[in-house]
């Protein structure tokens, strides 16, 4: 099989950037060019302040950038030069048209594929890195074959990415597995072997799995659906805990000790976020419906519905503990990213919560160690429609540190599990002094020692633990 000397990655996002930076760092003899239409993003990749925050990413980029790793807006040049091309563009949920709200918008994948067909002057291996519905490779093949110059051959591989934001670099360095799907033809198997060699630069051969193209595509959707299902399962149980006196951390611990279940992804929370889980499950739901499998669609859809319910339920608890009204009260929101160690806010539960608090006429002060102010304003407004930023700013402010966010507040709501919010890291005694009384903390991530904070004087309300504060008889929960 062919040896890969030059790789192009189309899409310099959360996946394309870190993945191909690691490929370059681990394969110094392979030239890796990451291209994107977004010039600002490429400029940031070429600067000292990378466009995304990931622990360990700076060092990886520094090792390889300018040596065999390049970031460029020259998409055509990147394609021309490459033996192998990763398509790592975004695949958001469609917002309009058939399948709106469920199906993946494959417009970016299609336009990248058309570009490859138009530009390529030699044979290419085209790799789907983006998460796509099962059988997308088939559409890519039609487009490539219908538009390519004569005598040019394309092999299409599926190579879904399993990294998690916040731990992207260690996930890439030590993957559980690398999955490569190909057609079961000689040329398909040979293309898969070429890509496997690239990963073998640092991954053990027995962790590089090859399989049929459609299994590989579906495995990525399946893995995300099962991971999200675990979270929705534990969150559903957290509601039972709150109503009975059981403690979700104890239940989770007990269940996780069963070797058939295992302890990971069993932490209750205010809900999952991130660009992938919801999108990929909805995608699976749409796929099931289009295959005339309504029961299967309903089954997976419930995982997303449980997540929405959890955010609403947690908000209701905040309102009800604060004597059934948030009007004019100040709520400090600790954390805006969808999880710790990332600046990514896509589908972050904090966005939903802040919107609910706004509807209740609260004032909200947000602090997050990694999210830019501009990003927060963008997330809290509907872009393109009318500029609501002024209206949002009348109710929402962004604080420079957690102490300022909490000063004068009626309640703190922990939305992201940043280590710096732990009671071992922040001076909660100081925070308590500056808050209105009774001072509430709503721990949506189970990161606080409720007893310790209780001794300071806080009313601590934790997801998955029974309510501690006085319940009014008119309580609507
Ligand atoms: P992203 O939105 O951060 O990056 C995609 C990039 O592609 C953007 O910078 C965009 O400008 C660029 N792009 C779009 N069309 C282009 C074109 N025709 N030519 C050149 N550049 C183009 O998206 P992200 O998060 O990197 O996700 C990419 C894919 O990977 C998605 O399908 C996602 O589902 C999947 N994925 C994401 C994971 C994550 O943790 N974010 C994990 C695993 C898979």
TrEMBL record:
<feature type="binding site">
    <location>
        <position position="36"/>
    </location>
    <ligand>
        <name>NAD(+)</name>
    </ligand>
</feature>
<comment type="similarity">
    <text>Belongs to the UDP-glucose/GDP-mannose dehydrogenase family.</text>
</comment>
<dbReference type="GO" id="GO:0051287">
    <property type="term" value="F:NAD binding"/>
</dbReference>
<feature type="binding site">
    <location>
        <position position="260"/>
    </location>
    <ligand>
        <name>substrate</name>
    </ligand>
</feature>
<feature type="binding site">
    <location>
        <begin position="161"/>
        <end position="165"/>
    </location>
    <ligand>
        <name>substrate</name>
    </ligand>
</feature>
<feature type="binding site">
    <location>
        <begin position="89"/>
        <end position="93"/>
    </location>
    <ligand>
        <name>NAD(+)</name>
    </ligand>
</feature>
<feature type="binding site">
    <location>
        <position position="445"/>
    </location>
    <ligand>
        <name>substrate</name>
    </ligand>
</feature>
<dbReference type="Pfam" id="PF00984">
    <property type="entry name" value="UDPG_MGDP_dh"/>
</dbReference>
<keyword id="KW-0560">Oxidoreductase</keyword>
<feature type="binding site">
    <location>
        <begin position="220"/>
        <end position="224"/>
    </location>
    <ligand>
        <name>substrate</name>
    </ligand>
</feature>
<dbReference type="InterPro" id="IPR014027">
    <property type="entry name" value="UDP-Glc/GDP-Man_DH_C"/>
</dbReference>
<dbReference type="InterPro" id="IPR036220">
    <property type="entry name" value="UDP-Glc/GDP-Man_DH_C_sf"/>
</dbReference>
<dbReference type="Pfam" id="PF03720">
    <property type="entry name" value="UDPG_MGDP_dh_C"/>
</dbReference>
<dbReference type="InterPro" id="IPR017476">
    <property type="entry name" value="UDP-Glc/GDP-Man"/>
</dbReference>
<feature type="binding site">
    <location>
        <position position="346"/>
    </location>
    <ligand>
        <name>NAD(+)</name>
    </ligand>
</feature>
<feature type="binding site">
    <location>
        <begin position="338"/>
        <end position="339"/>
    </location>
    <ligand>
        <name>substrate</name>
    </ligand>
</feature>
<dbReference type="InterPro" id="IPR014026">
    <property type="entry name" value="UDP-Glc/GDP-Man_DH_dimer"/>
</dbReference>
<keyword id="KW-0520">NAD</keyword>
<feature type="active site" description="Nucleophile">
    <location>
        <position position="276"/>
    </location>
</feature>
<dbReference type="Pfam" id="PF03721">
    <property type="entry name" value="UDPG_MGDP_dh_N"/>
</dbReference>
<dbReference type="GO" id="GO:0006065">
    <property type="term" value="P:UDP-glucuronate biosynthetic process"/>
</dbReference>
<dbReference type="InterPro" id="IPR001732">
    <property type="entry name" value="UDP-Glc/GDP-Man_DH_N"/>
</dbReference>
<protein>
    <recommendedName>
        <fullName>UDP-glucose 6-dehydrogenase</fullName>
        <ecNumber>1.1.1.22</ecNumber>
    </recommendedName>
</protein>
<dbReference type="GO" id="GO:0006024">
    <property type="term" value="P:glycosaminoglycan biosynthetic process"/>
</dbReference>
<dbReference type="InterPro" id="IPR028356">
    <property type="entry name" value="UDPglc_DH_euk"/>
</dbReference>
<feature type="binding site">
    <location>
        <begin position="130"/>
        <end position="131"/>
    </location>
    <ligand>
        <name>NAD(+)</name>
    </ligand>
</feature>
<feature type="binding site">
    <location>
        <position position="41"/>
    </location>
    <ligand>
        <name>NAD(+)</name>
    </ligand>
</feature>
<dbReference type="InterPro" id="IPR008927">
    <property type="entry name" value="6-PGluconate_DH-like_C_sf"/>
</dbReference>
<comment type="pathway">
    <text>Nucleotide-sugar biosynthesis; UDP-alpha-D-glucuronate biosynthesis; UDP-alpha-D-glucuronate from UDP-alpha-D-glucose: step 1/1.</text>
</comment>
<dbReference type="GO" id="GO:0003979">
    <property type="term" value="F:UDP-glucose 6-dehydrogenase activity"/>
</dbReference>
<feature type="binding site">
    <location>
        <begin position="11"/>
        <end position="16"/>
    </location>
    <ligand>
        <name>NAD(+)</name>
    </ligand>
</feature>
<dbReference type="GO" id="GO:0005634">
    <property type="term" value="C:nucleus"/>
</dbReference>
<feature type="binding site">
    <location>
        <position position="165"/>
    </location>
    <ligand>
        <name>NAD(+)</name>
    </ligand>
</feature>
<dbReference type="InterPro" id="IPR036291">
    <property type="entry name" value="NAD(P)-bd_dom_sf"/>
</dbReference>
<feature type="binding site">
    <location>
        <begin position="267"/>
        <end position="273"/>
    </location>
    <ligand>
        <name>substrate</name>
    </ligand>
</feature>
<feature type="binding site">
    <location>
        <begin position="276"/>
        <end position="279"/>
    </location>
    <ligand>
        <name>NAD(+)</name>
    </ligand>
</feature>
<feature type="domain" description="UDP-glucose/GDP-mannose dehydrogenase C-terminal">
    <location>
        <begin position="332"/>
        <end position="450"/>
    </location>
</feature>
